[in-house]
Amino acid sequence: MIIQDKNLLFDIGSSTLKAELFEKGKLVPFSQKTIFFTKDDSSEYGIDKDNMQELEQFLLENIKNSSVSVSEVKIFATGIFRKLTEGQMSKIKVRLFENVGVDFEVISHELENFYLEKAISVTDYDKEYAVLNIGGKTTEIVYFNHGITSKKINIDIGVGSILKAFPDINMDVTKEYAKEIKDFVLKKLPENSEKSNFAIYTGGELNYMELASYNLQDNSLFNHSDLRKLITFQDFKYRNSEVVHNTTLEELQSFMPENPQWMNGARACSLLAQTIFEKYGINNIVPSDANLLSGVTKQQFSKVVICGSMRKHLDDINELMNFLKNKNIDILSPKCIKNPKLFNGEFVVFSGQEISKPEESFKIELEHIKAIEEADAVLFCNPDGYIGHSTITEIGACIAFNKRIVFTNSKDIDFDLCFPKEIGLLA
Q1: Which of the four, 28, 74, 284, 343, has the lowest number of CB atoms within 10 Å?
Q2: Ranges for the Ppx/GppA phosphatase N-terminal domain (predicted)?
Q3: How far is CA 339 from CA 218, 258, 320, 330, 352, in A?
Q4: For residue range 136-164, what is the model confidence (pLDDT) as tens digits?
Q5: Both 320 and 422 in a single domain?
Q6: What is the pLDDT of residues 60-74, one digit of tens each?
Q7: Residues spanned by the domain of 225
Q8: Which residues pair with residue 155 across a beta bridge?
Q9: Domain stop point among 88, 106, 124
Q10: Cα separation, 159 vs 298, whole angstroms
């Protein structure tokens, strides 16, 4: 089983693209770029062709500059990519596999929430708190109680939605955008009875607030090495007004010369967050630079399926299952590999699986295929590169269901079809 000690991870959102190196247990920012992806149904990719070219170039440049192989790359796309058709996503996957050699994987809202929960959890705080993550097209709010998730709210509005509705927000500093944006956003926000003393505001907001001179104070609510600053809602609102009315876009961009385009969404993002905080009665804000990749490195998957030869590699599969259980990863199938028995010299059955004729093996295999459809990823255990007939069927199911395929042992696969896949697991 390959446990990689170095990976290049990509967080591809609707407007912000991040590349971070995960090496020796540490996640280090590597590169960031802003692309305001535009939906374009006249394009075979469902997004603007120039956006597509920029995305491809961003991936190529970072893989080259980081000196990692494509087998050490893992991609987590969200936002606008979830809104594309199956055909459009297939075109993107094929192009990026052919031109870059990577598996471009779009994760569900559910899995994105899971990673955000893992990224920031304050287990020693005895009151309820919230985590706010604003993307280009979507926004997630997760409520916690004693570090346990109590409620999730997913909203189809983001920075791009504000910029599209208010295209002059970065040019006209005289207009009272706060009220107009508040009215616009409130129509999208659901009613919410949850109460929270503070919210952790993720996605590079600590860096932004420090660069833009917000009135940050030391975090007096709880001790956390990654959550060291705090700002009151009133101070946040006051500085937002100054940024909107007294600070030009050029000044904002000068704060972040390595990626000035990020600041194009700063006003929109801050006023969107301001409306959410006010609507839900949040009086204290803890800005954070954590993102979903922080969660990925803490727990790579929520639920998986394991495939491989139960006849040839049962000991290796057992080792993999123990590794996953120690990481708190749910194994949907196989649930148990105790008391293996060989039926008809070919098919392996375990405790709780009884068959008396070959046709009954179909039910077991069908349950396994259904589990693949529910999984975040499918792990193929192939220590010597061997791929059996059943495993070929399971690879086909993964491709049909657009599932992340991970070979845990070897890239020397005894199989003549070239397809997007990853090699190895995170340490």
Answers
A1: 28
A2: 66-202
A3: 57, 58, 17, 21, 9
A4: 989 999 998 877 888 999 999 999 999 99
A5: yes
A6: 999 999 999 998 999
A7: 110-295
A8: 139
A9: 106
A10: 27
